[in-house]
Specification:
By secondary structure, the protein is mainly alpha-helical. It is 57% helix and 6% strand. β2 and β3 form a beta hairpin. The longest helix has 57 residues.
């Protein structure tokens, strides 16, 4: 408008007066239909020449001109007509707005139902588009997977659908033979669902492969509790998970934020983790790092003849140490006398480190044993002989033997250095007591000899472990090549196959063979590729046996970190506040202690222990037997159709 006014001013040499105003909002152009910004202006001038110039300038700027009579009476009539028209338009707009609001209010209650119906119909037609059309028989043909135990249920549903539709032709249900690998389906409950999702996050099991979830339900919360063991912290976690379980119906019907929804989905996992943490806390005899004496006082007594001396007044307590009393060891868990002593850290370090190794070897052994059952189920005898047997021997000859030495040392009270024994087992086979390294050529470490014939046994175990390496590497590729050559000469294939043996199952008397390749032809055998694959598998297992065993030491490390953090919060915050004797400082100390416990131990430590337990199951346990390269059975379900949950 500024440039328009400037042009008018120059054209009339200033002999005009212009008044303009911006119209609020945008208007719809009746010609183009677009919304545009408009301004209203009035130009006062004198003379016909000025009128002609102003008219041409307005046309040049595409301005809309409206006639305005010079007669004052006519001007009043026009003003009245315009006001009356504006009033009528305003009344019509208000009436239309009220009608729109009434209509929207009337359909608001039905809109979600309509959206759900339309979404369901669209999902049904999407599935129908996947069906094949038989032109000759004028019918639709659907092929898909169903669970074997749901066959009668699906047949009944199809019959009911035909009856409701009054179809003159019934639905034909016919099992088909196929060589495609079936999907994997596990029936779960609300308790086992979260554990199954933890396993599926690593990879979906192959069809009829052993499901690790059966063992994960127990081993996962237990390994978590080993790192998180504390009665107080476990009780808090159990109460939080119990609240989620108690209010699961109410919370399940609400839309939760991402963090709360994740905790709600794993409520039963959290409940098991809390319960196992209470159990391991009882074994550690700790509640918020405070030692407990639920099962009685300490079993250690003073070694002085005067039995009236307490362990705190005993002069030998800091020199030769206390001795075990006649009542035997502490009945449950760790003796509470260790807590707060100078020897607590060395004692708990040694105990938890050895305990972690034993647990790791036990879980890895379980994984190898499950691989045996997988191989036996799929009739893969070659893998049973060339993989399971050498793997279990290799693990037992090295780390199984180490676990056995740990148990023997605990039972006998031996002071042997197990690190030294295992190192010398490789560097100097047969030399158990460091012969020739002591004074006058005697044994340098006689305490390492734990039983008679130990040197010969360790040499035998080492030789067996070394034999297992070529045993895993060489025979299987050559046997596979031999079977392939026999097949090419026309001989029949036996149960030795290139990959895994193909799972078989019977249905209505028809044997169905699943094939991962999706066709019945055997692929061309590449001996070099097979040998390299077997070499990688062998190296991975041999090195993994060492690294996986060392990885289980995280159980010791995180358990120690959790206990020490809890002790620091208790000693430096709560105990310091209590020593001041001030009620105000005590309240502040309790508040800071509670916030540190909840923020650091109950949130950060819980997440840390959860992730480490997850890593132990995915990498150290499942890689011994779990393929995880299957695909999940995804049946058609309205609950999984996008938009239905939002609409309902």
């Amino acid at each position: 408008m500024l440039s328009f006014e400037r042009v008018l001013f120059r054209a009339t040499r200033g002999n005009m007066f212009m008044k303009q105003a911006q119209i609020e909002g945008s208007l719809v152009d009746p010609i183009t239909g677009e919304r545009v910004e408009k301004s209203v202006f009035v130009v006062f001038y004198a003379g016909e020449r000025a009128r002609a110039k102003i008219t041409k300038i307005c046309e040049a700027f595409d301005a809309n001109l409206y006639p305005y009579p010079e007669d004052f009476s006519r001007q009043g009539e026009m003003n009245a007509e315009v006001n009356e028209r504006l009033h009528e338009l305003s009344f019509a707009i208000d009436a239309g707005q009220r009608q729109w609001e009434d209509t929207v209010s009337a359909i608001a209650g039905e809109l979600s139902t309509w959206i759900e119906i339309v979404t369901r119909e669209a999902a049904i037609f999407h599935i129908l588009n996947m069906l094949s059309i038989d032109v000759t028989r004028k019918c639709l043909i659907a092929e898909g997977w169903i669970p074997a135990d749901s066959k009668r249920l699906i047949q009944g549903a199809l019959q009911r659908a035909s009856q409701r539709a009054s179809s003159p032709v019934g639905t034909v249900f016919q099992p088909l033979s196929t060589k495609e690998a079936p999907p994997t389906y596990f029936q779960t409950t609300k308790f086992t669902l979260a554990f199954q999702e933890i396993v599926d996050a690593y990879g979906v099991a192959r069809y009829q492969e052993a499901n690790p979830t059966v063992y994960t339900i127990i081993t996962f919360p237990f390994l978590f509790a080993v790192m998180f063991g504390d009665v107080g912290h476990g009780l808090l976690l159990t109460l939080a998970a119990g609240a989620l379980v108690l209010w699961e119906r109410k919370l399940g019907s609400r839309k939760l934020n991402e963090m709360v929804s994740m905790c709600f989905s794993g409520r039963y996992v959290l409940l098991m983790m809390g319960a196992f943490s209470i159990y391991t806390g009882l074994l550690y005899n700790e509640a918020f790092s405070i030692p407990m004496a639920i099962f009685g006082g300490t079993r250690f007594v003073c070694s002085q003849p005067d039995s009236s001396l307490s362990m705190f007044d005993c002069p030998n307590a800091t020199t030769t140490g206390l001795v075990m009393g006649d009542s035997g060891p502490y009945p449950v868990g760790v003796d509470p006398v260790w807590h707060g002593t100078q020897t607590e850290l060395p004692f708990t370090n040694s105990m938890k480190m050895k305990m972690s190794i034993i647990m790791g070897v036990a879980q890895m052994t379980l994984g190898i044993v499950i691989s045996f059952f997988n191989q036996r189920f799929f009739r893969d005898r070659l893998s049973m002989i060339c993989e399971f047997v050498p793997q279990i021997l290799f693990l037992f000859c090295l780390f199984g033997y180490l676990s056995l030495l740990i148990v023997v040392k605990w039972l006998t009270g031996s002071v042997a250095d197990l690190y030294h024994i295992m190192i010398y087992m490789f560097l100097s086979p047969g030399n158990v007591d460091c012969a020739g390294e002591g004074p006058e050529g005697g044994p340098g470490c006689p305490e390492n000899r734990m039983y008679a014939g130990q040197g010969a046994v360790q040499v035998l175990l080492l030789v067996l472990a070394l034999i297992c390496v070529p045993w895993m590497l060489v025979p299987k590729p050559y046997m596979l090549r031999k079977e392939h050559e026999r097949h090419r000469r026309g001989g029949a294939y036996n149960e030795l196959t290139y990959n895994e043996a193909l799972p078989e199952y019977e249905e209505d008397g028809v044997t169905v063979v699943a094939s991962q390749s999706g066709h019945g032809q055997v692929e061309e055998f590449d001996f070099g590729e097979t040998f390299v694959h077997q070499m990688i598998h062998t190296i991975e297992f041999v090195l993994g046996a060492v690294s996986n065993t060392a990885s289980y030491l995280r159980l010791w490390a995180l358990s120690l970190a959790h206990a020490q953090l809890s002790a620091v919060f208790y000693d430096r915050i709560l105990v310091t506040a209590m020593k001041t004797g001030s009620p105000a400082l005590l309240i502040v100390g309790l508040f800071v202690f509670a916030m540190a416990t909840l923020g650091v131990l109950m949130v950060m430590e819980t997440l840390s222990a959860f992730l480490h337990a997850l890593r132990l199951h995915w990498v150290e346990f499942q890689n011994k037997f779990y393929g995880g390269d299957g695909f999940k059975f995804m049946p058609f379900n309205f609950a999984t159709v996008p938009g239905i949950d939002e609409a309902g």
